[in-house]
From TrEMBL:
Pathway(s) where this gene product acts: Amino-acid degradation; 4-aminobutanoate degradation
Top-level EC class as recorded in UniProt: transferase
Protein name per UniProt: 4-aminobutyrate aminotransferase
Family annotation (Gene3D superfamilies): Aspartate Aminotransferase, domain 1 (3.90.1150.10), Type I PLP-dependent aspartate aminotransferase-like (Major domain) (3.40.640.10)
Highest taxon of the lineage: Bacteria
Pfam families recorded: Aminotran_3
Origin organism lineage: Bacteria, Bacillati, Actinomycetota, Actinomycetes, Mycobacteriales
Length: 447
């Protein structure tokens, strides 16, 4: 038996540049990648990882990078978080798979019960488990259609819901997600999103009225199965809708028997300093979708919601070979415990306060930062040409490249490619959070 020499909790919590980024071993691996992996699978920062934990990612060349990405909001409790490692190790020794639809196991039921408990609302709930975020979105739409007997689905401007055929249709941005990949699923409609920085500062009620007018005039509530929305948009640019927007939409859905689906795949699971972003305005979705942060890096997703809606799909109508795999379920239970035992909701709020404070100070002296927004450990800046609101994607790319070269992992996003987003794991130590912010300040000074 081989022994694991380094565990995540042993990793030195420091930034360290042993070579240029990427180093020679990563460059060689990237050449092999180009020869072996389909070109459509891109890489943002091609350093090849050998270990990660706390606030760092360590590569094959011995570089230790500060992680402001969490593998796109996945390793919220930390990479290889100790409780997750223990739970998965124990499970992998016991059994790796049976298929829950063939011979079930307890951890799946425990995860479903935990999701029913921790998601908003005290009504009777049921959950179903899947593998990826896109799969959760697909299944939520299936369930909403089965329950309502209606077909149409509304998604929003700047929405991102995945890369499968139905979720491409729900996703707003053409390049790189949709272009050339059609035809797309039918009966998907788009409504305007509340985007305070770019919609003239419409208040939430007014923005919701605009969206509802589009829905009523172009689709009609009688034809509408569901409204799908990210309470804080992810890939679309970390857009936080104006207060009142989500409650007004949810209320309209309730009045019209339309299923209100919150896609919390990126914003959920403690990321924003609450378990779910929709809790900020006491919005209770009919169905809530989770993935990414749910299982500390193991592939798992879920649809959770009102029992009468969830139970509308007949036995055999939902499922999949791997959905709710036992390793992923063990990980998810450990994640839920860790969020609680380590007070990670508080930690997310502290991280958010620190980042917002530093970024607002920076924005006050740099007019290219048009907007600073987000909540908890889900924070972004939108970059524009000075004195305008014209998106500056080139500057955004330069700042990201500068940060990468300095050993700070940051991601970009946004319909206009001009948003830098920060998603540190909640295991990020204060000194690395501060050092990451120093690098960002330097990046703006030098670009
Ligand atoms: C990432 C994401 C998805 C898709 O999840 P996958 O696991 O990549 O399929 C869906 N919705 C939102 C909001 C996301 O951020």
């Amino acid at each position: 038996m081989t022994t694991i020499e380094t565990t995540a909790s042993d990793l030195a919590q420091r930034r360290h540049l042993a070579t240029a980024i990427p180093g020679p071993k990563s460059v060689a691996l990237q050449a092999e990648k180009q020869a072996a992996v389909a070109a459509g699978v891109g890489t943002t920062l091609p350093v090849y990882v050998v270990a990660a934990g706390g606030g760092v990612v360590v590569d094959v060349d011995g570089n230790s990078l500060i992680d402001f990405g969490s593998g796109i909001a996945v390793t919220t409790v930390g990479n290889s978080a100790p409780a997750v490692v223990d739970a998965v190790t124990e499970q992998v020794r016991a059994f790796t798979h049976t298929c829950f639809m063939v011979t079930p196991y307890e951890s799946y039921v425990r995860v479903a019960a935990a999701l029913n408990r921790i998601t908003p609302g005290d009504h009777d709930k049921r959950s179903a488990l899947f593998n990826s975020g896109a799969e959760a979105v697909e299944n939520a739409v299936k369930i909403a259609r089965a329950y309502t007997g209606r077909q149409a689905v509304v998604a929003f401007d700047h929405a991102y819901h995945g890369r499968t055929n139905l979720t491409m249709a729900l996703t707003a941005k053409s390049k790189p997600y949709k272009s050339g990949f059609g035809p797309f699923a039918s009966e998907v409609y788009r409504a305007p999103m509340s985007y305070p920085y770019r919609d003239g500062g419409l208040d939430g009620a007014a923005a919701a009225k605009d969206a509802i007018t589009v829905i009523e005039k172009q689709i009609g509530a009688d034809n509408l199965a569901a409204v799908v929305i990210e309470p804080i948009q992810g890939e679309g640019g970390f857009i936080v809708p104006a207060p009142g927007f989500l409650p007004a939409l949810a209320a309209w859905c309730r009045r019209n028997d339309v299923v209100f689906i919150a896609d919390e795949i990126q914003s959920g699971f403690a990321r924003t300093g609450q378990m779910f972003a929709c809790e900020d305005e006491n919005v209770v979705p009919d169905l809530i979708l989770t993935a990414k942060g749910i299982a500390g890096g193991l592939p798992l997703s879920a649809v959770t919601g009102r029992a009468e809606i969830m139970d509308a799909a007949p036995a055999g109508g939902l499922g999949g070979t791997y959905g709710g795999n036992p390793l992923a379920c063990a990980a998810a239970l450990a994640v839920i415990d860790t969020i609680d035992s380590e007070n990670l909701l508080d930690r997310a709020r502290q991280i958010g306060d620190t980042m917002l404070d530093r970024l607002r100070t920076l924005a006050a002296s740099d007019a290219r930062i048009g907007d600073v927004r987000g909540r908890g450990a889900m924070i972004a800046v939108e970059l524009v040409e000075e004195g305008t609101k014209t998106p500056d994607a080139a500057l955004t790319a330069r700042i990201a490249a500068y940060a990468h070269a300095q050993g700070l992992i940051v991601l970009t996003c946004g319909t206009y490619g001009n948003v830098l987003r920060f998603l540190p794991p909640l295991s990020m130590p204060d000194h690395l959070l501060a050092e990451g912010m120093d690098i960002l300040e330097q990046a703006f000074r030098e670009n």
